[in-house]
Amino acid sequence: MVGSEGPRRSTRDWVVDSLCFVVAIFGGFLLYDDGSRDPVPSALLAFDFWTGMALCLTLWFRRRWPVQLAVIAALVSTFSDTAGAATLLLIITVAIYRPFRTTLLIFLINAASLAIYLQVRQKPESLQEVAIWAVLIYSAVAGWGLYLRSRRQLLQTLRDRADRAETVARLQAQQAQMRAREEIAREMHDVLGHRLSLLSVHAGALAYRPDATTDEVAGAAETIGASAHQALQDLREVIGVLRAPVGELPQPTFADLPVLVEDSRAAGVPVDLEFDAVGNPPDHVGRTAYRIVQEGLTNALKHAPGHPVRIQVIGAPGNGLSVEVTNPAPGKRPGAGQGLIGLSERAQLADGRLEHGRTPEGEFRLAAWLPWPA
């Protein structure tokens, strides 16, 4: 409530302003001299009283125009006793709402008005005595105002820091939530996409083999049932940990790669695997390699069913881990590419790189290099 267009007064502001007004009126009556102490004309005494009361009324606007009203108070104080309490309250207001330089200027103006007051009111006290008392009172009042200003600034700073901390915490929580959602989305895509692709292959085989024998149909149905059961099991595992930290999601390991390839072969996909990795890479590197091979097999099942798939996994500590999946790419590959986007993010998180696209031979190639520290 500093500027001319400040916010409305709160209930607390109304209470404080009312108390200030009452104190100023009461102090004005106590300080008013009816002429018994100072031999001054009655007209000046009347002017003293009414201007002092008018200055008390201006206290209702002290928050909006503190400096202007303090200057007016200094002028009125050159002849008025009644304005004393209101003047002190206005000095406090300036100290609270304006910088120290402005407060010092108002202090000096009121000190100058004191010398004029002593001449106008013909006070018997010496100038030195009155000046000492006035400086002490003005200093105490201005000091109290400066203390209140510093305290308000400190509280405002603490509120701003708390607001900023709350905003930062909220943004960090939102970012963590988004990262968790992206991680869960990648897991759902990687885990279920491959299982459902195998299920689709077996179901498609039944649809295109009307001449299949009873044993073949029964075997395919058994495989479909097993794949569906495994897909539901994977789904339960992922859903079961949605409320848990992302790190607790079910994660495959590098050693599970041969099992992944065998599952695809069991679904009728001719897979040629070249596996030449010495030792086990770090967990995050091994998981990323597993997901790359899994996505490559899933895409091959979806877009090039029945065509051979070549997989190369070559690496050693200190040389890095290279993963490459190639298969024929007949026609244009449909799909939104969400799996490839997720793989790119995984590779970047592992400080690796990922490439994908058609080769000059008309094949689709998915290749990645991942760091493998020595």
From TrEMBL:
Reaction catalysis annotation: ATP + protein L-histidine = ADP + protein N-phospho-L-histidine
EC assignment: 2.7.13.3
Group of enzyme by EC: transferase
UniProt keyword list: ATP-binding, Kinase, Membrane, Nucleotide-binding, Phosphoprotein, Transferase, Transmembrane, Transmembrane helix, Two-component regulatory system
Transmembrane segments: 14-32, 44-61, 67-92, 99-118, 130-148
All copies of domain Signal transduction histidine kinase subgroup 3 dimerisation and phosphoacceptor, residue ranges: 181-245
Protein name: histidine kinase
